[in-house]
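From the shared-data thread, chain only:
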Amino acid sequence: MFSAVAPRYDLLNRLLSANLDQRWRRQAADALTVPNGSPVLDVCAGTGDQALALRKRTQRVLAADFSVPMLKIATQKFRQTRDPIPAGFASDTLLLPLPSKSLGAVTASFGLRNVADLDAALREMHRVLQNDGETAILEFALPRSNLLRKPYLFYFRNILPRIGAWLSPRGSAYSYLPDSVMQFPQREAFTQRMEDVGFRDAAWQDLTGGIVCLYTGRRDS
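Structure, as tokens:
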């Protein structure tokens, strides 16, 4: 599914989020400190936008995704940038080909909803972090305010899938999107999952009225 939508993925991200997705990615990068230029990995990296946002945090940015067509687009974008140039590689988030305690930070933007085993993905992200290493995770959420929740759900269930079907060769992916958001643990439920696999100081922050959450945590030293 993700390989099929890759050619229009960036266009639809900008259109469906009113270009806010770039701001959210910068906020995720800004939530990290990354001491001593340690390497940073973005998992479920897609077409590489989060990896590009991470470049001001470190000289060593990695981007992993299991969709090769997505990675090809990411690599093209990386080559058009100045140093530091992120390095992309194909990998399943459930089994990262990296040593334990090798990274200063791990990020995931709008991708953990799609893994086959959420807890296994979080454990793997925790495993590769150095002591006191950080994570920043972006995910869609349902607004808690009733004033926002009803129009948001109408847009999410009715308008967004139609735009996706119109512009993307695999329009069913944009019907899948609302369903995956509804089923994903949100706010306290997700930070509890983070803590259960070993993250400490797990916290969440609503962005843009609560349609997106930024989750942060760190590996205990």
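The chain has a mean pLDDT of 92.
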